[in-house]
Specification:
Elements (H helix, E strand, L loop, with lengths): L9 H21 L11 H16 L5 H18 L9 H18 L1 H16 L1 H11 L2 H20 L13 H38 L4 H14 L4 H26 L1 H28 L17 H38 L4 H12 L5 H27 L1 H23 L1
Helix pairs in contact: 1-2, 1-4, 1-5, 2-3, 2-4, 3-4, 4-5, 7-8, 8-10, 8-12, 9-10, 9-14, 10-11, 10-13, 10-15, 11-14, 11-15, 12-13, 12-14, 13-14, 14-15
Organism: Methylibium petroleiphilum (strain ATCC BAA-1232 / LMG 22953 / PM1)
Keywords: Membrane, Transmembrane, Transmembrane helix
InterPro entries: DUF4010, MgtC_SapB_SrpB_YhiD_N
Length: 414
């Protein structure tokens, strides 16, 4: 028995109608009642989306433009005749966007469905977005966000995207993108610290600081643990979560420099991150109350000197590792990776990924080198934990990092 073949565009029309209904349901709940109610509701949005789909499907030149002008005119008329004391423009803009989603649904049903769902979620999150913008986000954090946006949209595209032999084949643009990522994680950690409170903020700060330096994070939280022994469990949890950042940043570096290297590293890195995350979160069960001193004046969460120091370290270590591999072969490569990782694991991992991208390093050697780098850096972090935080703090940190490393090696061997 032969199946029924749908005409071309029928699926797109169905997606357009579904997207219009989804958006319309959300707007209907916001429409209100009585004389102050909005003009557009469930049926208006469904019809607008279906109109866009039909305008794109029907083979009449210029029909999509005519339909767009009609919907825009009706939206403007509705806004002009609104009796609400604060009419806003959200509903009118959403109506016009729904029409465009209907047009897109016929061209690409998957993209049209995604746009429709995204618009519905955006409209439904009004209160949460308003609270985030007015309560959770401070003036300083807004300034930091604008600065990050300017760096991402203006400065980053101006950096040339070509490899430099002096940096072991690393492109300057991915290196700059990594600096931008570190700055963004610093800003996110500041927001999390205030939104989650002292207890959750310590863990969030540990995770975010790990993207800059897990070793420095272990030392910093260890100093606090020595001053406040009753909080050693919680502070150790934050230090352990910086180990999660080590694995995640290794993946991010690989994605930026050599996507095939990231594919080889994916499972071991996720296993290592999962082990550190599980042990770190267990500290919440035994952690006592956290009492923080009163907050001082607002300060910027961005620490550009730290991020730039990471980039400079990446470049210098890339030069060291690349020259060691060229002059002394695999033995020199592994020795230079271990020595560099005693200070920071990210720099030798970046060098290995760059060599892999240039075709000078096989995948097996890359994976082995990454695990050696994290292993050497784990030894450093355990020693720093003992010196900075004392025995109880070091035992918790060392156990978690050892479990994380063992899981990563096991998955790599398997």
């Amino acid at each position: 028995m032969s199946g029924v073949t749908l005409p071309d565009g029928a699926l797109g029309l169905a997606v357009a109608l579904g997207a219009g209904l989804l958006i319309g349901v959300e707007r209907e709940r916001r429409k209100g009642r009585g004389r102050d109610r909005e003009a557009a509701g469930l049926r208006s949005f469904a019809v607008a989306a279906a109109t866009g789909g039909l305008a794109q499907w029907v083979p009449v030149p210029g029909l999509v433009i005519v339909g767009a002008l009609l919907v825009a005119g009706l939206a403007a008329l509705s806004h002009a005749k609104s009796r609400s004391r604060d009419p806003g423009l959200t509903t009118e803009l959403a109506l016009f966007t729904t029409y465009l989603i209907g047009v897109q649904s016929v061209l690409s049903p998957a993209l049209g469905a995604a746009c429709g769902a995204g618009l519905a979620v955006l409209l439904a999150a009004r209160e949460r977005l308003h609270r985030f913008a007015t309560e959770l986000l401070s003036e300083q954090e807004l300034h930091d966000g604008l600065l990050l946006t300017a760096l991402a949209l203006i400065v980053l595209p101006l950096i040339p995207a070509r490899s430099l032999d002096a940096l072991g084949g690393i492109d300057p643009r991915p290196l700059a993108a990594l600096v931008l990522l570190i700055l963004a994680m610093q800003a996110a950690g500041q927001v999390a610290l205030r939104a989650l409170g002292p207890r959750g903020g310590v863990l969030a700060a540990g995770l975010v600081s790990g993207f800059v330096s897990s070793t420095a994070t272990v030392a910093s939280l260890g100093g606090r643990a020595r001053e406040r022994p009753e909080q050693a469990a919680l502070l150790a949890g934050g230090a352990v979560l910086s180990g999660v950042a080590t694995w995640l940043q290794a993946l991010l570096i690989s994605v930026l420099l050599s996507p095939p290297a990231a594919a080889a590293l994916l499972l071991p890195a996720l296993a290592g991150a999962a082990g550190a995350l599980a042990v770190g979160l267990l500290s919440l069960r035994t952690a006592g109350a956290v009492h923080e001193p009163p907050a001082g004046p607002p300060r910027s969460a961005l620490r550009p000197r730290e991020a730039l120091a990471v980039a400079l370290t990446l470049g210098l270590v890339a030069l060291l590792v690349g020259n060691a591999q060229r002059h002394y072969g695999d033995v020199g490569l592994e020795l230079s990776v271990v020595l560099a990782a005693l200070v920071d694991a990210h720099a030798p991992i970046a060098s290995l990924a760059a060599l892999h991208a240039a075709g000078e390093l096989p995948t097996e050697a890359l994976l082995h080198g990454v695990l050696l780098a994290v292993s050497a850096n784990t030894m450093t972090r355990c020693g720093v934990a003992m010196v900075a935080g004392g025995r109880a703090y070091a035992l918790r940190v060392g156990l978690a990092l050892t479990v994380s490393l063992a899981l990563a090696w096991s998955v790599a061997w398997w």
